[in-house]
From TrEMBL:
This is Glycoside hydrolase family 43 protein. Gene3D superfamilies: 2.60.120.200, Glycosyl hydrolase domain, family 43. It comes from Jejubacter calystegiae. SUPFAM superfamilies: Arabinanase/levansucrase/invertase (SSF75005), Concanavalin A-like lectins/glucanases (SSF49899). One of its GO terms (molecular function) is hydrolase activity, hydrolyzing O-glycosyl compounds. The record marks 128 as: Important for catalytic activity, responsible for pKa modulation of the active site Glu and correct orientation of both the proton donor and substrate. Signal peptide: none annotated.
C-alpha cells in the first residue's frame, strides 16, 4: 500500500477531471492559452503520474489566435464509456468584459493516445462543461451558464441537457439542477451514480482561497437535489496555516475494488520561516499556479466525506492495490534531438510549426524564428515549461546574430502578456551585440541595463543564459564560455508571477520559464538553442 504525497501534479495543473478505464486512471487538466490544449496524465496507483496525451494538438481542434490571457481551455471533462474516451472543453474567447464568452466542444478517441476526433460543437452558452454517461445508456451534458444574466452573483446555476451521440446534438430542453449556496461562483459540475443516487459535485467560492467542493444528491439525474449535510466537503478557507490552499474543483473516481478518491485543485503559497505571511500577500502568493491533489473519500449514510478532514491532507493512504511510492522529482533537459518538441514544452495560443521554429533546420538545435514580442496574443515564438518548484535553475546555450534593436532572443520568466521579465540579446548602433533585461509588471515596463548594457564580444559565437529561482526572488546569469558565470546584479520578485499578485479572480495560470525570439521589423531572423535544462534545487 502506497502513500500519496500532494500535490501529485506539481506546477500549473488546475481543474483536474479524473476517470478510470479498467485499472488505468487518467486526469485531464486545464491549459488556458498554452498549446497544445488539455494535458492528460496516466497512473496505475493514483500516485505516480506520467503525461499520456495532449489531445488538442491541431488548429482545427483549437484555434486560440488572439485569445486573451487566461482565455482558451477552461476546465475540461474526461470520461470513458462505450469503448471511447470523451473530452468536453471550453475555448474562452472573451475574459475582460461584463461577462465572459466562449465555445464548447466534444472530441472522442478510441485510446488515450488518440487519434482524437475533430470537434463537435456543443453550444456557446456556458463553461466548465461535463458529460455524464448514465447506466441506462443516456448521456447528459452539464455546465454553468453565462451571459448578461449569468456571469456570477446572484446567478449561480448548473444546467443540464440530454445529449444524443448518434445525432451529435443536444436536446433543446434545459433543466436547472442547482442554483448555488451562499458561497456563490457555482461551477465545475460533475455527475456520478452510486447505489441508486445521482451525486452532483460542484465547485463554489471562486478559484482563490475561498474555493470549496459542494455535493448534492438525487434519485434521478434531473433532480430534485438535496444538499450534503455539511454542504461543503472540501475547503481550506478556515485553515489559513495549512500548506495546501485554494482546495476545490473536485472530481470523483472509484477503484476496481470499490474504494473512492477525489482529484482536486490546490495551491502551495510561498512561505518561509521568519517571513510574515502579510509580507507575501496575506496567505501567500502561488507562482507555481493551481496544482492537482488526491484525497481519499469515505461514504457514510449515502454521502461522501473527505477522510482526515475537509482540507484533504499533504499525505494520504493510496489504494489498497497500490504498492509503489512516488518517484523523486528529476532534473529535466532537452537537447533537441527529436523531431518534435518535448511534451514538457508548450507554445502560446498556436501550434509549434514552421512559422515559429524548427527542430530540423539545424540538427541538435531548436531554431526559433523571430515573430511577435511577448506582449502579443497572436504569433509569439515562445517555447516554455512550467515552474514546478520554488527553487530551481533553468539554463540554455544560444547562438544569435541580430541585425538591430528590433530583433532579440533570450530567456523569459513569464506569467502572461502583461507580467514577465526577459533577459535577451539584441544589437545596438555603436555598441554591437548587448545583453539587457525588460520587465513588465502589471503592464508597466522597466528597461534594465539599457543605460549600461552588457557587451557581447564580437568573437563570441554562443552565449549561455541562466535563471535561478529561489522562493521569493530570482536572478539571471550569463557566460561567454559555459564555465565562467556572471550574475546580473538585479533581483526579481518570483511571487509577482502569480494569480494572487496579478489579479486574483480572472487570472488562472502560473509561472513559466522559456525561450523566446522576436523580430518586430519583419526583416527575418532566427536564434538557435543548443539545449534547455531545468534542475530543481
Amino acid at each position: 500500500m502506497s502513500t500519496i504525497t500532494n500535490p501529485v501534479l506539481k506546477g500549473f495543473h488546475p481543474d483536474p477531471s479524473i476517470c478510470r478505464c479498467g485499472e488505468d486512471y487518467y486526469i485531464a487538466t486545464s491549459t488556458f492559452e498554452w498549446f497544445p490544449g488539455v494535458r492528460i496524465y496516466h497512473s496505475r496507483d493514483l500516485n505516480n503520474w506520467t503525461l499520456a496525451a495532449c489531445p488538442l494538438d491541431r488548429a482545427s481542434q483549437l484555434d486560440m489566435r488572439g485569445n486573451p490571457d487566461s482565455g482558451g481551455i477552461w476546465a475540461p471533462c474526461l470520461s470513458y464509456a462505450d469503448g471511447l474516451f470523451w473530452l468536453v472543453y471550453t475555448d474562452v474567447k472573451v475574459v475582460d468584459s461584463p461577462w465572459k464568452n466562449g465555445r464548447n466542444y466534444l472530441v472522442t478517441a478510441p485510446s488515450i493516445e488518440g487519434p482524437w476526433s475533430e470537434p463537435i460543437p456543443m453550444g456557446n452558452g456556458g463553461f466548465d462543461p461535463s458529460l455524464f454517461h448514465d447506466s441506462n445508456g443516456r448521456k447528459y451534458y452539464l455546465y454553468r451558464p453565462w451571459g448578461p444574466r449569468h456571469h456570477s452573483d446572484p446567478h449561480c446555476t448548473i444546467v443540464m441537457q440530454e445529449y444524443f451521440p448518434q445525432e451529435q446534438r443536444l436536446s433543446p430542453e434545459r433543466r436547472t439542477l442547482f442554483t448555488g449556496t451562499t458561497l456563490r461562483y457555482t461551477e465545475g459540475p460533475h455527475l456520478y451514480q452510486r447505489d441508486g443516487y445521482y451525486y452532483l459535485v460542484v465547485a463554489e467560492g471562486g478559484t482563490s482561497y475561498e474555493h470549496a467542493v459542494v455535493v448534492l444528491r438525487a434519485r434521478a439525474p434531473e433532480g430534485p437535489y438535496e444538499l450534503h449535510p455539511d454542504t461543503v466537503i472540501m475547503t481550506t478557507w478556515d485553515q489559513p496555516e495549512h500548506p495546501l490552499q485554494k482546495s476545490g474543483h473536485g472530481s470523483l473516481v472509484d477503484t476496481p475494488n470499490g474504494e473512492w478518491f477525489m482529484a482536486y485543485l490546490t495551491s502551495r503559497p510561498l512561505r518561509l520561516p521568519g517571513v510574515p505571511l502579510l509580507a507575501v500577500g496575506g496567505r501567500g502568493y502561488c507562482p507555481l499556479g493551481r496544482e492537482t491533489g488526491i484525497a481519499r473519500i469515505a461514504w457514510q449514510d449515502g454521502w461522501p466525506y473527505v477522510e482526515g478532514g475537509k482540507h484533504g491532507g499533504v499525505q494520504i493512504q493510496g489504494p489498497e492495490t497500490a504498492n509503489r511510492d512516488a518517484s523523486p522529482d528529476e532534473a529535466w533537459r532537452d537537447d533537441f534531438i527529436d523531431s518534435t518538441l518535448d511534451p514538457a514544452l508548450q507554445t502560446l495560443r498556436i501550434p509549434f510549426d514552421d512559422r515559429l521554429g524548427s527542430l530540423s533546420a539545424r540538427k541538435g538545435f531548436l531554431r526559433l524564428y523571430g515573430n511577435d514580442s511577448l506582449v502579443s496574443t497572436f504569433a509569439q515564438s515562445t517555447v516554455a515549461r512550467r515552474w514546478q518548484h520554488f527553487r530551481f535553475q533553468a539554463e540554455t546555450c544560444m547562438q544569435f546574430d541580430p541585425a538591430h534593436f528590433q530583433q532579440s532572443a533570450g530567456v523569459t520568466c513569464y506569467y502572461n502578456t502583461k507580467n514577465w521579465s526577459y533577459f535577451f540579446m539584441d544589437r545596438e548602433e555603436g555598441r554591437g551585440r548587448t545583453l539587457k533585461i525588460i520587465q513588465l509588471d502589471r503592464n508597466v515596463p522597466c528597461w534594465h541595463l539599457y543605460e549600461e548594457p552588457i557587451p557581447v564580444p564580437e568573437e563570441v559565437s554562443a552565449v549561455w543564459l541562466r535563471v535561478e529561482v529561489d522562493h521569493l526572488s530570482y536572478h539571471y546569469s550569463y557566460s561567454f564560455d559555459g564555465e565562467n558565470w556572471q550574475r546580473v546584479a538585479l533581483s526579481f520578485e518570483a511571487w509577482k508571477l502569480s494569480d494572487d499578485y496579478i489579479g486574483g479572480r480572472g487570472f488562472f495560470t502560473g509561472a513559466f520559464v522559456g525561450l523566446h525570439c522576436e523580430d518586430i521589423s519583419g526583416d527575418g531572423c532566427h536564434a538557435d538553442f543548443d539545449y534547455f535544462s531545468y534542475l530543481p534545487g
